[in-house]
Design brief:
By secondary structure, this protein is mainly beta. It has helices spanning 2-21, 52-56, 223-231, 330-337, 342-345, and strands at 58-60, 67-72, 78-83, 87-92, 97-103, 107-113, 120-126, 140-145, 150-155, 157-159, 169-170, 178-180, 189-191, 197-200, 206-211, 236-242, 247-255, 258-264, 274-279, 284-289, 298-302, 307-314, 320-327, 359-364, 371-377, 387-390, 395-398, 407-410. The termini are far apart.
Length: 418
Amino acid sequence: MRIAVLIIAVLAGLFGAWWMASAPPAAIVVGDRHEFLAPPASLDAITPAGDYISLNAERIALTLPAYDEVVLNTAESRAYVTAVDGWFWEVDLAAGVAARFVDVPMMPAGARRAPDKDQLIYFCASRLYGAEYPASDRVGLYQLDVNTKAVTPLVLDVPLAPAPGGAAVVYLREGGPRLRRDEAEGKNSRPVAFCNDLDVSADGRRIYFTEPFAYDNPSMGGAGTYREAISLGRNGYIWQYDMDADEISLVAQNFTFPDGILVEDTPSGGIEESILVNETVKFKLVRMFTGGARAGSHETVSENLPGMPDGLDRDDAGRIWVGMIKQRSPVIDWIHQNPWIKPLLLRLPYNLMPSDRATSFLALSSDASQPLFYSEHDGSVLTEISVVIPGGAGLYLATVGHDSQGLYSVPYPDGLTP
């Protein structure tokens, strides 16, 4: 009997030690019960029969590794691709041939061509989970000149902000924390922790970028992303870099894993008054008002989506294309309905969570209010769609699935050609 008691005590002690040692970072706070409803019924009417990608996908440039973004030049003769090997690759679209172009800090991710200077590409650089980088590499917002191959850091530090985790906040244009680049120092700033995606104002003078969370050496994929998906933590930031003022300002904070971002132009021109941002692990698209009569507020545009919305892009007709990197599952819905299980799940290796190969993509009207097309893909061609990039000849599909090779594309669905 004493031996049995001793064994139980030892096991309890070992469990307690493991429980303490495996605790997630303090920034991970498990929220209340959250129930995701069924995906919008409006998607049924615009979902074609069959798997659109399996039936229509094409692939060129077979030496190209997995990638997160595709940037087309004005003539659409070449594509510049942010690959998981830490390089920008250049693809000759006519010849279907890819080659390494520029080695950049860490892994290039979200990227946009400057609307006012065709040779410039703005891009995020961040850690890819499991990859090793030189100590001199820094996370941040960068510029690439494709004519000279020069890589220039734009934002490596951001102003100190209130601690994350409270109610979601959108700051008035002049009301949030802000900092000139040449004034950044240890007491008033911190290094950018995770630059994930970006968009550029119509005049090319302001760049907005998302920072899904900023603790515990964040990376694209891996344990940090898993913890945010389980906890639904409110740890995200959206930043703006104003080139004319050479100033970084906080646009919004306390959103859940803000990822894809899209600037909305005002009908009359001038400085933009709203942006669209995906809360990826909440299966949700949010509009944040940065100016105008509703400045400082936000609204839900789409929710209960069938997959995790990742990157956002817009075609020449104004329609919005959404890459849905992974599908919702009954397991994740059950977890959020039963938050008592989350403290245990947050201590387990993230790769124990089941994940299938399905992915999908979605088209929305120009104001994001109406779904126009949706199709789920079974993963037989590619396993993750991070962004859908509209081109003149079709839609390019970005995929960070490590088993993929080549540049993927599909034709525009019927009725949606720009």
